Amino acid sequence: MLIPIINRSHHPLPEYQTAHAAGLDVRANLAEAVTLKPLQRALIPTGLFLEIPVGYEVQVRPRSGLAYKHGIGIVNSPGTIDADYRGELKVLLVNLSDTDFLVQDGERIAQLVVARHEVIDWQPAEVLSETARGSGGYGSTGVQ
């Protein structure tokens, strides 16, 4: 799949880190480092602009290493970039640790996963089909 991309950063394009990785690592594009204090969030620019094909989205997901080592996540995880968005890709990072975290220019801050999606039409109904689970939610499948 080819996705047109404009790179206004001075970093390489997002890339897969291993042969079978699902996500492409994306880098911060910063004039100066950003300090994230505990529980603080910041919108981090990447310098990237995408033209995603209709019927697809790009999901912005946390990097597991940043989450494990530093408590850094993404507030709206996974974030969705829609096919009609043409603005700069930015990542909404949050510091869930108890110490400051310094986001450096060029640091790999998130991963991007391209996913197909369906466009649906609602079919109004008065009754839904029966299932073994029924209306059980939030932890109901573990109750005996």
Automatic annotation (TrEMBL):
Annotated dUTPase-like domain residues: 12-142
Catalytic activity from the UniProt record: dUTP + H2O = dUMP + diphosphate + H(+)
InterPro entries: dUTPase (IPR008181), dUTPase-like (IPR029054), dUTPase-like_sf (IPR036157), dUTPase_trimeric (IPR033704)
Enzyme class: hydrolase
Known pathway: Pyrimidine metabolism; dUMP biosynthesis; dUMP from dCTP (dUTP route): step 2/2
EC identifiers of the protein: 3.6.1.23
GO molecular function list: dUTP diphosphatase activity; magnesium ion binding
Residues the record lists as binding substrate: R63, S64, G65, N76, T80, I81, D82
Function: This enzyme is involved in nucleotide metabolism: it produces dUMP, the immediate precursor of thymidine nucleotides and it decreases the intracellular concentration of dUTP so that uracil cannot be incorporated into DNA.
HAMAP family in the record: dUTPase_bact
Protein family per UniProt: Belongs to the dUTPase family.
This protein's name: Deoxyuridine 5'-triphosphate nucleotidohydrolase
